[in-house]
Design goal:
The chain is an alpha+beta fold. Helices cover 49% and strands 14% of the residues. The radius of gyration is 22 Å and the shape is globular. The mean pLDDT is 90.
Length: 192
């Protein structure tokens, strides 16, 4: 007899309608993601350009190693969202792409091979968050001094990279190659 009331409560709970989860509209999510990625890129690029101007590419490597993650984290914190850089060929192993991130990198590369610009991907999660993935390309010749081909990277720079990143995979790129992705996570509260 005690089981009947419990079963009734469970049956009623199963029939209860759940409120639909709301997400940031896709266009707004892409806009916010792009602004955040551009902000982080501008801050990091500025730091790297200063270091290269003052001491060459070798001086930029410790900046990237020590300041990149805190700069990205600062932008993410200020904008109250998640922001990560990922690659299938990372310099820092903590930025190794996998799963859907890796599949997105492959689809972005396929778009580039077919002569198209890669379009951001938008994934709406069951909890209301929205995940936007944006391409990161080698967009400036300056980047090739540390990420380019053997002809672009001096031996001194290569040695400095190996010292900090013995398992580095982030070389061999040419201008406009896809380097990885920005992964931006927005909650419904992030909409203006």
């Amino acid at each position: 007899m005690k089981a009947a009331p419990v079963l009734l409560v469970l049956a009623l709970a199963a029939c209860e309608k759940r409120q639909p989860v709301s997400h940031i509209p896709r266009g707004e999510a892409v806009r916010l993601a792009r602004e955040s990625a551009q902000d982080a890129f501008a801050r990091l690029s500025g730091e790297l350009a200063k270091a290269i101007e003052n001491g060459g590419p070798v001086a930029a490597i410790p900046i990237c190693s020590a300041k990149a993650r805190p700069l990205v984290a600062e932008v993410a914190s200020r904008r109250q969202l998640g922001l990560r850089r990922l690659s299938d060929r990372p310099r820092n192993p903590q930025q190794q792409a996998g799963g859907k991130d890796l599949a997105t990198i492959e689809s972005f590369r396929a778009a580039i091979r077919n002569g198209s610009a890669p379009e951001p991907t938008v994934e709406e999660m069951p909890d209301g968050t929205t995940l936007v993935r944006l391409p990161i390309t080698v967009s400036q010749p300056l980047c090739l001094q540390c990420h380019g081909t053997d002809a672009d990277i001096s031996e001194e720079t290569r040695a400095a990279i190996r010292k900090l990143y013995p398992d580095d995979q982030a070389t061999g790129y040419r201008l406009n190659d896809l380097r990885g992705i920005w992964q931006v996570t927005l909650s419904p509260d992030d909409a203006p």
